[in-house]
Structure formats: C-alpha cells, structure tokens
Specification:
By secondary structure, the chain is of the alpha+beta class. 36% of the residues lie in helices and 16% in strands. It has a 6-stranded mixed sheet with strand order 4-5-6-8-9-10, with helices on one face.
C-alpha cells in the first residue's frame, strides 16, 4: 500500500548492487507534501501510514504513524528530504505501551526536535544529523530513523554525486559506485525521459542530485542511471549496425571493415555484460553477445552478410523503441539489390539518432548521424567516427577485446 498527501507516487526499490532495505521511505517536498513508501511486514500489516485528523475550526493535524511512533514533520525551511523509518518491535507479541510522540521541524537555521517537554536543536550538517538519529534511537532501540538526504531546491550539478546533502554512508557508496562507472562521464548528460516520461529535458546528473523533487528515492535514480547506460550502449550498437549495413550494401568486399564492425560489437557486448553486474534486467538490454552467436561473423556471402545485419538492426531497433510503442518495421530488402535502400525509415532514424551522441569535441555541434549519406566515402567516414566514439567511451574493454 502507498499513502501520500495530494498525489500518489509509486516507488520501487531494487535489489542488485543497491541494498534492499525493508523500511518505510519518507519523501518530504518543499511545500510540506509527504510521500510514504512502505513494505509489508511478515504479518502482512502496513508498517507506517500518513494520518490526517480533522480538528475544530476546519483545521487538520497530519502526522506519520509507525506502530507506537507518532511523528509530525514541519517544513519551515522548504527543504527536500528523504528519510527512512522502521519500527522493529513486534506489537503482536507484547503488551501495549505508550505512544512515542515526536515533532520534527525543519527550521530555517536548525532542525528542531520536540519530545515531551524537551526541545533540541540540530545543525544541517553530518554531526547534527548523526546526533538527531542517535537521540531518536536512544528513545527506543527498536526505532530505525535514518536521514538519507536533505537539500534545498535546485541543487547545482557542478559537484560530485557524493556531497554535503547526502548523509547515509551506504547511499554514499552507491552514488560513488555509479559515478565511477565507465560510462558516467558521458551518460550523465543524457536525458532521463526515455526511462521516466514525467521528467522531460532533465539530465541524469540533475535527476540524481534533485531526486526528491521528482518523487524518487536516491536508489531509484541510481537504477535509472544503469538503465540509461544500457540505453546508450544499445543506441551505439544500433547506430553501428545501421551504418554497417549501408556501407556493405554498397560494397560488400570490405573485409577489414566487417572485421572491425564485429570487434566493436564485441566491445559493446562486454560493456553490456558488465552492466549486468549492477542490474541484471533492463528494458534496453539487447543481449549483443547472444545476437552475435546467431550470425555468421566470418561470412563471405554478400546476401548472408546483409541478412545478418538486417537481423541485428531489426532486433536492436525493436528493443530501443518498444517502451515508446512506436512501429519498428524496418526497410528490409530481401535480395538487397537496391544499393540506395535505407535499412531504417527516415522518421525512425531521426527518432533514435537525432542529436546522438553529444559530440566529444567542443567545436562540433552535432554529428548528424540521423541523416545517413548515400555516398560510400561519406558513409564510411561516419562509420569510422562511430568506431572512434565507441572506443573512447568503452575504452576499458579494448585491451581484453584485442
């Protein structure tokens, strides 16, 4: 079950190299809206929920209830926050005890905790957050209260993913893992729209920095990061085989180019297999290694070679465009007689390759790969640029591929 004030947001927690913690995740928006995502416990009872009590004079009182813990959250500073909460005590096997009433106010200068007649102040820094967590834990050892992240709106992206807005050490490790991945330097500027249509024109890096503003946990944004890397790899593989088809359809006797195409596909295959270590399944997993097993990489027959490339193009395009529901039929010419035949319709080519990838060079606005040339020299010029781009971004896999 999932509760929220104002609107409903469904939050999925993934296992993989991200930890799978069975806790209630509280997302606080700058206007005070609160999302709660919680698992079921072993007895299939809800662990935490948002309570709204209507008082006299049309006023209301809102708080989080988690077993014997009642927590009010007031957002004066208009911050965004992600907090994890769990009450480990099994209320079905013990005598009832008094409710613990807490009020946490995110003030303009400090975090203020009210408990009984006590009022405590904590700084917005690592020491302050640790002291706040420790005080709550000391009230009852069964309470797990963990501040993952607190930040003000529009966190600048000119900073590391691990920064002073993140307080949870395991989350810091996960952020560091993603930032150290081989594709982060390039994928961080990719838009997340392909994975989350509710976030148009938002880059992956900005999305992670401002996770709560988009009703996402940090872990959710990190699984999105892996999906984006799968997507980038799939697009490179598709771009490569599309240009390979156009080149070899004009002149199939380019044995060295065909060998190069297969070698570069193997580089992308190793990259894809590497991403499986972090997330085994993805909408954009095209299984390059399996596809290569199904074609004859040493074929000298023009027709067989072009049929194999058509097969790869068809499969890659279908997977890339499946989430968008677009018709992925390609212009397959069974006899491959027409050397001017484009393997992809123009609208599909533009849909997939428009603006991809962002140029590595500062003096280049766009590679314009979506506009496939007709002359062999121009096609091969672009093909060799694609080779260079892939070998640059996936260079970590070059040595083991040689």
């Amino acid at each position: 079950m999932f509760y929220k004030i104002n609107s409903v947001v469904l939050i999925f927690l993934y296992v993989l190299f991200f930890r799978n913690v069975f806790v209630n995740t509280i997302l606080i928006g700058k206007e005070g809206e609160i999302d709660i995502c919680q698992p079921y416990d072993n007895m299939n009872r809800l662990d935490a929920e948002m309570i709204k009590e209507v008082c006299c004079l049309n006023t209301s009182n809102e708080y989080v209830m988690c077993k014997d813990l009642r927590m009010s959250l007031v957002n004066e500073k208009k911050i965004f926050a992600e907090i994890r909460l769990r009450y480990d005590d099994d209320s079905t096997t013990r005598k009832a005890k008094s409710t613990i009433n807490l009020k946490i106010t995110f003030g303009k200068k400090n975090i203020i905790l009210n408990y009984k007649k006590e009022q405590k102040y904590y700084k917005y820094n690592e020491i302050g957050i640790n002291d706040l967590q420790l005080f709550i834990r000391n009230l009852d050892e069964n309470i797990y209260f963990n501040v993952v992240k607190i930040y003000e709106s529009n966190v600048p992206i000119i900073r590391d993913l691990v920064n002073d807005t993140v307080y949870d050490n395991e989350i810091k490790d996960q952020l560091s893992n993603v930032q150290n991945l081989f594709l982060w330097k390039y994928a961080k500027d990719d838009f997340v729209t392909v994975v989350d249509s509710s976030c148009p024109n938002i880059t992956l890096e900005y999305f992670i920095h401002n996770s709560t503003a988009y009703h996402k946990t940090v872990e959710q944004t990190l699984t999105t990061a892996i999906d984006i890397m799968y997507y980038r790899t799939a697009k490179y593989a598709c771009l490569l085989v599309v240009y390979a088809y156009q080149s070899l359809n004009i002149f199939s006797g380019q044995n060295e180019i065909w060998k190069k195409i297969i070698n570069v596909l193997r580089i992308l295959s190793k990259a894809e297999n590497s991403l499986k270590n972090y997330k085994e399944e993805s909408l954009f997993l095209i299984n390059i290694s399996e596809k290569l097993k199904q074609i004859n990489t040493k074929s000298s027959s023009r027709c067989k070679l072009l049929n194999d490339l058509s097969y790869l193009v068809s499969n890659f395009v279908a997977i890339i465009l499946k989430p968008s529901g677009i018709d992925t039929k390609i212009n397959e010419n069974i006899t491959h007689i027409n050397m001017k035949t484009y393997i992809l319709p123009e609208d599909i080519s533009k849909k997939i390759f428009n603006g991809f990838p962002k140029p590595h060079e500062n003096n280049v606005n766009s590679y314009m790969f979506e506009n496939i040339p007709t002359a062999l020299d121009d096609i091969n010029k672009n093909l060799f640029t694609i080779f260079e781009l892939i070998e640059t971004e996936y260079g970590i896999f070059l040595i083991e591929n040689e």
